[in-house]
Structure formats: C-alpha cells, structure tokens
C-alpha cells in the first residue's frame, strides 16, 4: 500500500485538505492514499505569532501551502526564495543537503517532504539564536 502513513496518538489532531480531524482515545494508523492531499499534523504546526525567525517563517509558508491556505504558485516561489536566503546562512554540509532536498521536493510539488527537510533546521537555528544572546 503506497501513500502517506500517519500514526496518531490519542486525541491528536491533523488537518487534511483544510478539515481538522481529531483521533479518538486510542493510537491509530491512517493511510492517506490520495496523491497530493494537503496533510498537516497540528502538533507540528507553527502558530502565526511564533513565525518570528527566518527558518520558522519559511516553515510557516510551507505549512500554509500544505493546509491549502496559500496560493501554490506564489507560495512555492516565496519558499524557493526563502531556501536560497537560508542557504547563505546555513553553511554546513548537512544543512545545505537538507536545503537542497527541500528545494528539490518543492520543485516536484512534494510539499510535505519539503517541509520535513526544512524542519530539520529549526533546532539548529534555535541553537544559533540562543548562542547569539
């Protein structure tokens, strides 16, 4: 069986194509078979007020794209620009590899995978911000 497999905790919420779905009181495994369905785990979602750093802003745009709340062409263009800008800051080989994968996935319109690669940078950015203070 192909497609996206979601493993949900009890009472965990996800958004699929704009509809919020809450799991029951047991762990659940869902298979999303529809290609290009917009799926977002709400526990991973960034609140608009929390999109206050460069990586979080780029991830937030990807999140809007996944939730179906952004016009795809404009959002992907904005994401590509953000990835280019992040590439000027994150110089390690590992970070550049994740940015390159995020860009490749975005160009193939694999928005979920692009967000997954971008989220890798969140703890690195947090460490850099903490060190700067």
Key terms for this structure?
5 strands; 5 helices; alpha+beta; 133 residues
Folded structure, characterized:
This protein is an alpha+beta fold and 133 residues long. The chain has two domains: 38 residues, no CATH class; 85 residues. Helices cover 51% and strands 16% of the residues. It contains five helices and five strands. The strands form two sheets. It has a three-stranded antiparallel beta sheet with strand order 3-2-5. A hairpin with a 2-residue loop joins strand 2 and strand 3. Helix 1 packs antiparallel against helix 2, helix 1 runs antiparallel to helix 4 and helix 3 packs antiparallel against helix 4. The protein is globular and about 45 Å long. The N and C termini lie far apart (48 Å).
Distance between the termini: 48 Å
Given helix and strand content, the structural type is alpha+beta
Query: How big a fraction of the residues is strand?
Result: 15-25%
pLDDT averaged residue by residue:
90
Characterize this entry briefly.
The chain is α+β, with helices and mostly antiparallel strands and 133 residues long. It has helices at 54-67, 72-89, 93-107, 111-119, 121-132, and strands spanning 4-8, 13-16, 19-22, 28-32, 39-41. It has two domains: 4-41, no CATH class; 48-132.
């Amino acid at each position: 069986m192909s497609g996206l497999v979601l493993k949900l905790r009890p009472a965990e919420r996800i958004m699929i194509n704009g509809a919020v779905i809450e799991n029951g009181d047991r762990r659940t495994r869902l298979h999303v078979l529809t290609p290009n369905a917009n799926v977002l785990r709400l526990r991973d979602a960034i609140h608009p007020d929390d999109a206050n750093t460069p990586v979080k802003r780029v991830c937030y745009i990807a999140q809007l794209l996944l939730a179906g709340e952004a016009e795809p062409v404009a959002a992907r263009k904005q994401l590509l620009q953000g990835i280019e800008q992040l590439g000027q800051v994150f110089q390690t080989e590992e970070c550049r590899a994740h940015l390159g994968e995020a860009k490749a996935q975005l160009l193939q319109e694999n928005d979920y995978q692009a967000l997954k690669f971008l989220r890798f940078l969140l703890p690195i950015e947090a460490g850099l911000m903490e060190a700067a203070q």
